[in-house]
Amino acid sequence: MYRAMVRATGSGIPGRVVPNSYFDYLIEDADEWIRSRTGIRERRFAEPDESTSDLATVAARNALQRGGIDPQEIDCIILATSTADMCLPSTACMVQKNIGAKNASAFDMNAVCSGFVYAMETADCFIRSGKYRTVMVIGADTYSKILNFQDKTTCPLFGDGAGAVILGATEEDRGIVSSLIRSDGGGWELIQVPSSGSRKPVTPETIAASENTFFMAGKQVFTFATDIIPRIIDEVTERGGIRPDQLDHIIPHQANVRIIDNIARRTGIPKEKFLLNLDRFGNTAAASVSIALDENLRSGVIKPDQTVLMMGFGGGLCWGGILIRF
Predict the structure, then answer these.
(1) N- or C-end of the chain: fewer Cβ atoms within 10 A?
(2) Same structural domain for residues 166 and 182?
């Protein structure tokens, strides 16, 4: 039976560094205010003419180069994003053209901040079924394009970026061991861009009311995250036949360090096992887990034979986890 293994990873990070002091116009002593509440020191913003597909293309090319993989080997491209270049066509097809992966099918997936985990499970299913042998999964978002920069509860939280993973079929005892994706549409209103589609098309009136920008009910989302993460850890490890204390590393969605502190206390898992980069990148939505995975593989923090749990949670409400043995 085939299993999906990680062949290569790559990232696409904007060059523009935005420190917390950028928000001094909005918050007195913004650096202290933001760091104490979230753990974020800085984030990256795309340039005005830089899009989600641009960052995703850089991540994809880096993954191909590091893996020594010909773009024509790619059978499928799944791009997780909630900030597509446009409502149609898919951003994945733009990346496909840019990297020359002419033999691939390509499509977008929107599960907001859980998108990368959703896309990884989908790719794993394709590979396990024998349908495809090589699948590129990309998490990419440019939330700086949709933020309300007068809302201090949301705009300092987010940054832009992209991460790519190339999965290949293997019969070895490594790769994706178990996975889980779930959603609860009863909470869809907690995270949204109200005027952005057919439900409430963008008009001068919705723009004036900032309804074309990101909205999040922060307290309710914090409660949701701290409730769901322990359940992800327990369920995915049980499916994988291990105990949570046997995990070498956990890569959570990079939303807020206070969420991770809460989870570490509740589960007894040492905080050192949680691999974090949100202090430098903020919340990069669907890109957050993939960027952290790439960083920690390239730095050697994640080593062969180690077991890593990746988790996503966010709008929808959606959540999920992927257990990988490297």
Answers:
(1) N
(2) no
